[in-house]
Specification:
Layout: E1 3-6, E2 9-16, E3 21-27, E4 34-37, H1 40-61, H2 79-92, H3 96-109
Antiparallel strand pairs: 1-2, 2-3, 3-4
Helix pairs in contact: 2-3
Pfam families: HicB (PF05534)
GO biological process, one term: regulation of DNA-templated transcription
Length: 110
């Protein structure tokens, strides 16, 4: 995955072959926050500085910084999948929410 994380924010990284730089953009928020660097170390430093600056500007202007995600997720599933998940959660001895969170966490870590 071409991503970096810092202070709860993630950034998607791409390489611009024409300008020969790495370009990053904060993911999961509507504000457009971008940064760049010619080396990985420079890119990482720019990412940290950009996130810090974004948070400072939001605080200074009284505008709440956008958070990447609230932690709430609404899914629409077919009834058969919903039922199968509920059974799997019950067999595991956890709530459906706990089962889904654990299963999704495992999926994104691999």
């Amino acid at each position: 995955m071409n991503a970096m994380t810092y202070r709860g924010y993630a950034a998607r990284i791409a390489y611009d072959a024409e300008d020969r730089i790495f370009v990053g953009r904060l993911a999961g928020i509507k504000d457009i926050v971008v940064f760049h660097g010619t080396t990985v170390d420079e890119l990482e430093t720019a990412f940290h500085e950009t996130v810090d600056h974004y948070l400072e500007v939001c605080e200074r202007t009284g505008r709440p910084a956008q958070k990447p995600y609230s932690g709430r997720l609404l899914l629409r599933l077919d009834p058969e999948t919903h039922a199968a998940m509920a059974v799997a959660a019950e067999l595991a001895g956890v709530s459906l929410n706990q089962w889904a969170a654990s299963t999704l966490r495992e999926a994104v870590q691999h």
